[in-house]
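User: Could you go from structure to sequence for me? I need the amino acid at each position, not a summary. Structure tokens:
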């Protein structure tokens, strides 16, 4: 039940407009939706997540772009990546972790 609840929580912000995906590696380079060009765009690694969660945890409905932008303001509010990357469910968002998500490719 916990995963289902989480899915509903992140549903609004995770179905964001994806950038280019490297299908073979399951990596999705996310689109910058405001703010400075530096650091490089965040890269979402599907496989690291797929071995832990069902698709439904993040895609409770059809996989489609959402109007909600994915920004740090949104994540700090506990949505999108911030629903799990909060220092409890998964490692948190802070200066020690910038480059785990923002990877130059
Ligand atoms: C859990 C993953 C994650 C971590 C850790 C992370 N970011 Fe992000 N960040 C994102 C995502 C996702 C976006 C939206 C896509 C993009 O613009 O790259 C983003 C966007 C941004 C943006 C664009 C403006 C905004 O607020 O959306 C900046 C600037 C940024 N991050 C800087 C940082 C810095 C500096 C750190 C370390 C203190 C950091 N990020 C850590 C995932 C992360
Ligand atoms: C931990 C969260 C999470 C899980 C679990 C997850 N996804 Fe995703 N998925 C994302 C994110 C974030 C994106 C990139 C933004 C978007 O397109 O919604 C994405 C994008 C996608 C895309 C679009 C790729 C593109 O380039 O536009 C597909 C298709 C997809 N996921 C399928 C799946 C399937 C199938 C599963 C289960 C096997 C799954 N996802 C599990 C978070 C997840
Ligand atoms: C449903 C919960 C959940 C969501 C939502 C989620 N993550 Fe994760 N993520 C995890 C967990 C759990 C791990 C593994 C943590 C660990 O190994 O300590 C992880 C691992 C990662 C890693 C691997 C880092 C490494 O050390 O190799 C990256 C990168 C990452 N997440 C980025 C993101 C980004 C970007 C988003 C938003 C688009 C996101 N995650 C959304 C739960 C989530």
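Assistant: Here is the amino acid at each position, in order:
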């Amino acid at each position: 039940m916990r995963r289902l609840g989480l899915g509903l929580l992140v549903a609004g912000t995770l179905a964001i407009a994806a950038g280019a995906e490297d299908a073979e590696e399951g990596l999705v380079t996310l689109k910058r939706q405001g703010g400075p060009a530096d650091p490089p765009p965040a890269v979402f690694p599907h496989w690291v997540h797929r071995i832990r969660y069902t698709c439904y945890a993040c895609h409770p409905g059809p996989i489609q772009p959402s109007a909600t932008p994915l920004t740090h303001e949104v994540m700090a509010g506990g949505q999108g990546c911030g629903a799990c990357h909060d220092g409890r469910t998964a490692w948190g968002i802070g200066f020690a972790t910038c480059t785990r998500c923002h990877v130059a490719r």
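One structural detail worth keeping in mind: The chain is about 30% helix and 10% strand.
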